[in-house]
Every structure is written in structure tokens, then in C-alpha cells.
Amino acid sequence: MDDLGEKITLRQMQIFLAAVESRSFMRAAERLSLTPPAVSMQMSRLAECLGATLFEKEGRTVQPTEVATALVPYAERMVETLKDAVLVVEALQGRIDSQVRVAMVSTARNFGPQLMQEFRKRHPEADLQISIANREGVIHALETGKADVALMGRPPGRVEVTQYQFAKHPYVLISHPDHPLARARRIRRADLVRMPFLVRESGSGTRMVHEYFFREADLPLPPAQEMDSNANIKQAVMGNMALAFISAHTIGLERQAGKLSVLKVDGMPQIRDWYVLHLKRRKPGPAAQQFVDFVRSEGPDIMRGLYGPDFGAEA
């Protein structure tokens, strides 16, 4: 009896209740789309596991014994619990099927909400959720299952993803409009080595562009102060504190207002790409997959509308 729970199955409980209610193995078999021998065999196995007789034949019917009658409420509880569990899963699955959890790097906040709003217009039934973090935060959200889809630049290397490029991502070098270099027609990389810079945290896409720009030319990295957001970097540059590499997609309003200048530097702008991606091992739900397909097909046109034909289109 020690391993009784391992031998008794939920299916046996379902068959048992049908037999008790119908008082016939044949009618129980019809209700459950089984054969009468299959019902009889399962009831024999259940009786053997319990070490007790459950049914007694009485003409063409079977009558539950005292043990069987005592077992009925427990069997009913087990079957009802299963039904409740199935209902919960079905309800949850319906929510998951309509759920789209998008994690985006902070730079993508300049166009990500527009993409999501256009998607919502076409799929009003979708449950859209958005989170914004730095590169490591977005990767962590994917790894821990807190995000279904990500919008980011360079895809992560430590996890396998399915990625789709949908737009160009230009990086430029910015200064205050009164900075001496703002009037220069051509700036060499070597001219920037002694200039103070503002940079994002290590590992961010913007920081990688900064370091690659100098190391590609075998130049030392210039003195730099780290800041935790593009917004803070823009404010500092507008205060004429230093120069900074930044995504061209983040400075449209500031350039239009004449508060920032884009420097004419050899090797700039540096063009990267925007991707929509998800973990390879975790297939997106129906709505999340619809979002991926939407960004792939409609993202290029939306980006062109936001940033123009040069920097908004697919590569």
C-alpha cells in the first residue's frame, strides 16, 4: 500500500465514477468512448491496488460495494480538481496567446512606442506590455522569460536568438553648437583624442561605438566621463561639457531646435542595424509572433516616415 498513490491513475477515477453512475461497465464504456473490456480491466486494477472489491454483479448491472461508495466523494474531488486545473490553463493560455511583452533598449524608446501603437491599431485584441532597459537589462529579460520579444541593436552573443534586421541605426558625434569643432568642415579621428567625452556604461551599444571608433584607428581612448542615460548625455553636451557619440535617432528635436550639432568626422556616421529578436529556444506566442512579423514587414516604412529615407530604411 506504500506505493498506492503511484499505481492509481486519474483515468481510473474517471472510469470508476462513470461505472458507479451508470451501474454498467458497458454504459460507462459508451460514455467514455472505451470498450467494455477496457473498463472492466481498469476497475480490476483499481480494486487490486486498493485491496478491496469495488463492484458486485447483479444481473446485467454492477453495484458499488461499501468501499466503492466511500471512495466516490474522493474520486469526485480528484476529477473536479483536474477540471479546475484545465480551466485555469485554458484561461491562462488565452491570456498568453494575446500577450506581447516587448523589451527595448533605451535608445529604441525614440521609435519603439510608435511601432507598438501602429501594431495596436491593427491588433486591438493584443495585450501589449513594454519595458525599457539598458542592453544587459533587455538580455536578462529575454533570458528569464520576462520578455517575449526585444528591440535592440547588436544581437546578444551569450544566448542564441532568432533575429531580423529591419532598419539602419546611425551613430553620430555631437557637440554644442558653439564648440570650435562645430564649424570644422572635416575632422580627423586623431584630432579627437585629447577632447573630453561623455560615454554610456560599459557593454552598451553606444559605448561600443565609442571604443571601436578609436581602436579601429589604433588610437588611445580619450578622457571620458560615464553617464547612465542618453538623456543625461544630451543635456551635458548641450551644456558644452564635452563631446559624445550617440544614436542619430535620439537627437532629432535637439538638432531641429539648434541645441546640438553633428560633427563632420572621418568615419562617421557609423551605421549599425536595428533588430527585432527572440530567444531561439522559446517560440513566441501567437500575438508576439504577429508583432515580430509586423516589425519585419512594416518597420522599415515606419522608420522611413520617422527619420527619412537615408537612416530609416532597411540596409
TrEMBL record:
What UniProt keywords are attached to this protein's entry?
DNA-binding, Transcription, Transcription regulation
The organism of origin for this protein: Tabrizicola oligotrophica
Q: Which PANTHER family match?
A: HTH-TYPE TRANSCRIPTIONAL ACTIVATOR CMPR, HTH-TYPE TRANSCRIPTIONAL REGULATOR
Q: Which domain of life is it from?
A: Bacteria
Q: What is this protein called?
A: HTH-type transcriptional regulator CbbR
Please state every residue range assigned to the domain named HTH lysR-type. Answer: 8-65
Question: Family assignment?
Answer: Belongs to the LysR transcriptional regulatory family.
- Matches recorded under PROSITE patterns: HTH_LYSR (PS50931)
Annotated Gene Ontology MF terms?
Answer: DNA-binding transcription factor activity; transcription cis-regulatory region binding
